[in-house]
Amino acid sequence: MAPFRNSRAAALPAKLSRSWLLASAADEANFGPALASEADSVIFDMEDAVPADGKAAARERVVEALSTGMTAWVRVNGIETDFWADDLAALSKAPGLRGVMLAMTEKPEQVTHTAMRLQAGTPVLALVESALGIENATAIASAPGTFRLAFGVGDFRRDTGASDDPMALAYARSKLVVASRVGQLPGPIDGPTVGTLGEKLLEACKVTASMGMTGKLCLMPEAADTINQGLSPSESEIVWAHELLEAHAAGAVVGDGSYLPRLARAQKISSLADSYGLWNA
């Protein structure tokens, strides 16, 4: 049998994942194409994608998939819902679970309580989707169990009345970036740009990257490759880093106070290029 998961993506640590694909758990037919896609990480979605009367069936579907060879993250329902406890009880026994995304995270203890109901060491992605969650982002990022923060743009806009203009969402994105840094987490994951592909999606990724976010959610498998491209070091950055590191290895002299920061940036770009397999791309 062919492997379910894209091998390149499967080998990439989740802390470096750029594209995070949400696959609806309303139909198991969504799982295979998602796992075979270019998405760095795949999330089986038992929350927004599933109506209340379909939650139990979706949960069974996900556990079955994760018990028969598939591996994925799972978006569970918020802690204030009637489904949260059952979601975690079922997932705690699923061998293919990579981690969970907690919907509607607003307080740090919600992450910790979620982590405590799973196998020890299971990472929790805190999906921040409200004004309260944004204001508590620093505490959430520092909570035991928090692996990375993600931005639920749609629900945040409904909660606050903000438009989708980058300026209207700049405070929330910046808050998640700063909170992630304070909590010593990987860069946060931006929300999806719904229904957008190609150049428009690349432009959206430029906004994501400019804010300091290092991942992005998506709803379509075909969006993953574009996000990976948009959130990776560019070819010119890789060439610059390679040249600077070669010169440094050859004994280049520190010329001014900007040299060491530039060297550190070159080393980071080089490391990411290695992780993403970009040197020969």
Automatic annotation (TrEMBL):
Keywords: Lyase, Magnesium, Metal-binding, Signal
InterPro entries for this protein: Aldolase/citrate-lyase_domain, Citrate_lyase_beta/mcl1/mcl2, Pyrv/PenolPyrv_kinase-like_dom, Pyrv_kinase-like_dom_sf
Top-rank taxon, per record: Bacteria
One Pfam family matching this protein: HpcH_HpaI
A GO MF label: lyase activity
Domain HpcH/HpaI aldolase/citrate lyase: 23-185
Organism: Arthrobacter gallicola
Signal sequence, renumbered to the chain: 1-25
The protein's name: CoA ester lyase
Named cofactor requirement(s): Mg(2+)
Keyword Metal-binding: yes
SUPFAM superfamilies, sorted: Phosphoenolpyruvate/pyruvate domain (SSF51621)
